[in-house]
């Protein structure tokens, strides 16, 4: 009881807006600055859970549940991370939670999941994030078995960009893995889970004071992605993130992590001896990049200039071109259609190339539809209630019979000899639709 009250006070202080950072708020001048007093960018609101409509569970962490919610008054959608105060205290995770809250508040990069606001009640803490509708990269790998090199290259280039930013401001993530890499509705990667970060010397990032019970003992991170020197000495450098990224890339391309074994002991043995076998279908460029990323930790000396090298090799492996619009379309389709919601509208052997919820515009009115492009090729729309009677085919199989006119990134018109259909795409993917439709028509 006492413990929970103590935690409430402590967390109330941490989650509350107090005042801007001052020199007095900096507890230690050597090494990381640790503070409990500053103004949060993502505010602490006075909301209650009843202000939200609860949707499906998006994911479950070791001490949290993340639920898709809609704010009743605004209709805005969030991924709400819900943490039980009692459980956090018993698991000695108070600092972990505070750290994530305070660190995320100071980060600003499109590849990092954005914390929007927090609130609390007597039992729980709530953190509202932008919702990453594409789910975890981990699920994407599981669903597909493995990911093609072109697609993996795109993800890796985006993650390297985030790591470069983090390392540049003096932060080591320490838990890069496919479960912590989330995908947006239009297929971009967002790095999540900042509860295990560590700061490097000279950082400007402010951290909360660490509780003694939470600072000592075991390594941070996830065993399968932890480099040998962390297992040996628990040292942490930015090279840990490179190692973890190398393991993640291996997992994207093969479906399993590189040191997977039947027991943790065998896995650690493999990690320590860097015992890695590459499947025959890995390209030389992919092997080189993984080798580079995994090599980097040996002496724990990787610098930011090495990241530039990785970026170059990431953009070089798989193919020599930058990600194309066709490639984005495939990516989008794989994100939008993965739950087979629209399977019932497909013919045997037909698969979805691109699918998205759009507005179909008429002269004075508009209606929401699901527009679907398939490999047959066919372009049709259905209403979101999925009733078969409302399925309308716009175009089927006639190569000369279709063109797409893009008015701006969110508006486009599909022209066939029979009709002209206008759409508004809030995700601003009008050019993707044009490339995907006309690409199929001209095949
Ligand atoms: N913004 C988001 N959008 C969609 N899903 C999310 C979001 N944030 C988290 N999730 C889902 O919830 C899961 C748990 O979230 P998170 O990793 O932040 O929790 P945790 O308790 O810190 O987990 P861990 O056990 O990794 O420490 C994620 O793996 C992901 O599946």
TrEMBL record:
One of its GO terms (cellular component) is cAMP-dependent protein kinase complex. InterPro entries: Kinase-like_dom_sf (IPR011009), PDK1-typ_PH (IPR033931), PH-like_dom_sf (IPR011993), Prot_kinase_dom (IPR000719), Protein_kinase_ATP_BS (IPR017441), Ser/Thr_kinase_AS (IPR008271). Pfam families: PH_3, Pkinase. It catalyses: L-seryl-[protein] + ATP = O-phospho-L-seryl-[protein] + ADP + H(+); L-threonyl-[protein] + ATP = O-phospho-L-threonyl-[protein] + ADP + H(+). Residues 52-331 form the Protein kinase domain. It is an enzyme of class 2 (transferase). GO terms for molecular function: ATP binding; cAMP-dependent protein kinase activity. Its EC number is 2.7.11.1. ATP binds at residue 81. Keywords: ATP-binding, Kinase, Nucleotide-binding, Serine/threonine-protein kinase, Transferase. CIPK serine-threonine protein kinases interact with CBL proteins. Binding of a CBL protein to the regulatory NAF domain of CIPK protein lead to the activation of the kinase in a calcium-dependent manner. Belongs to the protein kinase superfamily. AGC Ser/Thr protein kinase family. PDPK1 subfamily. This is non-specific serine/threonine protein kinase. It comes from Dendrobium nobile (Orchid).
